[in-house]
Amino acid sequence: MSESPQFTTPAVLDDIDRDIIARLHENARISNVELASAVGLSPSSCLARVRSLRERGIIIRYTAEIDPRALGFSLQALVSVRIRPGARHLMGQISDELRQQPEVAQLFFLGGAEDFLIHVRVRDADHVRRFVLDNLSANPAVALTETNLVFEHHTALSAGLRTPL
């Protein structure tokens, strides 16, 4: 797949485009016939819209959301990381290493007091402790970590996908 374009201004989308995107975000496996009916288009017009959204780089991929508990990961945590000032040149390397860890669900590079926020999925509290000790605290470039347990996690539609009521 080609690389997504770098948008300098928001893409031009009408209400039907936004409705298509929101419905695909909710269920990427919806059939074109069902999608067309839901957004009030003919199947051929709907398919053309979806193709246009892909070609313009607005839809960049389709994915499956997996319940981490089904894989034995019953605990989620957010770990914030601050890198030592003298080690800032290692941030790319640290980021690459963290993204390779199987526990890492998401990795955010931040502007602010913290440098990274890591969303991890783990089996239990001991597993998150070992992740932090082995992958962060043992790294001399890491100045500080803070771990917060996630009690509930909800995925919402991304900003701008919902059509105002």
From TrEMBL:
The keyword Zinc does not apply. It holds the Pfam family HTH_24. The keyword DNA-binding applies. GO terms for biological process: response to amino acid. It comes from the Bacteria. One of its GO terms (cellular component) is cytosol. One of its GO terms (molecular function) is sequence-specific DNA binding. Residues 13-74 form the HTH asnC-type domain. Keywords: DNA-binding, Transcription, Transcription regulation. This is DNA-binding Lrp family transcriptional regulator. The lineage of its organism: Bacteria, Bacillati, Actinomycetota, Actinomycetes, Micrococcales.
